[in-house]
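This section describes the prediction task in plain terms. A model, or a person checking by hand, is given the sequence of a single protein chain and must write out its three-dimensional structure as a string of tokens. No templates, partner chains or ligands are provided. The sample shown here is typical of the held-out split.
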Amino acid sequence: MNEPKNTALNESFDPHASSLQGEVQNEVLEELYAIRGSIDNFDAQLVYLLAERFKATQRVGHLKAKHKLPPSDPNREKAQIERLRALAHEAHLDPEFAEKFLNFVISEVIRHHQHISDTHKNA
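The expected answer:
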């Protein structure tokens, strides 16, 4: 997996941005900043993981277009949702949230696959 790059965006990000400065004790703010630092790291990892996932689904889209397969595979999607719900349950994550998240990702993948298919047909 690619590591986050030291970009201007990262350099301009203020990890201590908060509406709570001056409202709570410094010790509380420092603990809050530490926890939020972990959250920021998780968010960066999620972005890079999603980028890698979409690179793989792009390859699937090109393979499907080449062989004139449909952009969507409902049986695969159903199995993936069931699998992700079970994983979410094991991980103590709300399965409803996990399903909503995967449905969003799947809809984006299908949109990309349809675009690749359309582009392939017009080439």
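For orientation: The chain has four helices and no strands.
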